[in-house]
Amino acid sequence: MSATDPPLDPRGVRFAAALSTVVLAVVLLTGSGWLLAAQAVVFALAAFAGPRFAPYPLLFRTLVAPRLSPPTEREDAAPVRFSQLVGFVFAVVGTVGYLTGLSVLGVVATAFALVAAFLNAAFGFCLGCEMYALLHRFRTHRNQQGATA
C-alpha cells in the first residue's frame, strides 16, 4: 500500500461505505455470488490501486463533492486502504462460498462485510481503520521492545 495517497475527504469514504452497504445487502437478499464478486473488485481497486482509482470514490468526486462545501478535515488514506483490503478478503471468501454451493460461508462473510460497511456509512466508525491502528500500535510497540533488548 502506498504512502503517497493524498488525504481523503471523510464524506467520500462514508459515501463509498454507503454504496457498499447497499450492494452487500442486495447480495444477502439475492444470494448473488457474481454481485459479490463485483463488489470484491471494487474493494480490490481501492485497496491495491488506491481510493482515487476505485469507482465509488470516483462517483463521489465527480457527482457529489462539487455540490458540497470543501471538507473541513481530511483523513489518512492508509487505514482506509487497509479496511478495503479487509472488505476484499471477506468478499472473496463470500464469493467462493456462494459460487461453490457453500451458501452459509457466503452469507456469513457477506454479513461481516455488511456490518463493517454499515457502521462506517451510518456512524463514521471504520472497523478496518481501527484494526489498522491496533496493528500499527502493536508493530510500533514490538519494534520499541526489540530496540531496547
UniProtKB/TrEMBL annotation:
Pfam families linked to this entry: DUF4395
Keyword vocabulary terms for this entry: Membrane, Transmembrane, Transmembrane helix
Transmembrane segments: 12-35, 85-105, 111-135
InterPro entries: DUF4395
Domain DUF4395: 9-137
Keyword Membrane: yes
Keyword check for Transcription regulation: no
Residue ranges the record marks as coiled coil: none
Name listed for the protein in its UniProt record: DUF4395 domain-containing protein
